[in-house]
Amino acid sequence: MTLQVTPNIAIDEDELSERFVRAPGPGGQNVNKVETAAQLRFDVRHSPSLPAGVRARLEKLAGSRVDSDGVLTIHAHRHRTRERNRADARERLAALIAKASHVPKPRRPTKPSRAAKARRVEEKKQRARTKRLRGSIRGDE
What we know:
Residues 8-134 form the Prokaryotic-type class I peptide chain release factors domain. Residues 100-141 are annotated as: Disordered. By secondary structure, the protein is an alpha+beta fold. It has one domain: Double Stranded RNA Binding Domain (2-Layer Sandwich). It has three helices and five strands. It has a three-stranded antiparallel sheet with strand order 3-4-5. It is elongated.
């Protein structure tokens, strides 16, 4: 079975490893004995399913969730059952990869127009006049 992220990107089940641990926070009678929180691990650096550009953007986007070996870890403990936490972790991984697959538009540096520069200078002059009028009046003291 595969995790279909985009039409071009599908993650094979063998690339994902799951572990279930005890969930933090308040709970009922089972909080200290049932392991419902899911830990989903995905090796970003060595994944054959990801193109190079997506891989680099994913590592940057995931930030501290990627360790020094390039393994992305997602902790899911929002729900009370294993199945829902497992599905939540997979959805979050798919959303993260989908976001990383979007190529950002390159920024073109622009300059302000001559009219914009003139408006800015005129506004500065007006502000200076206003402040000058607020000062004390010199003359007959």
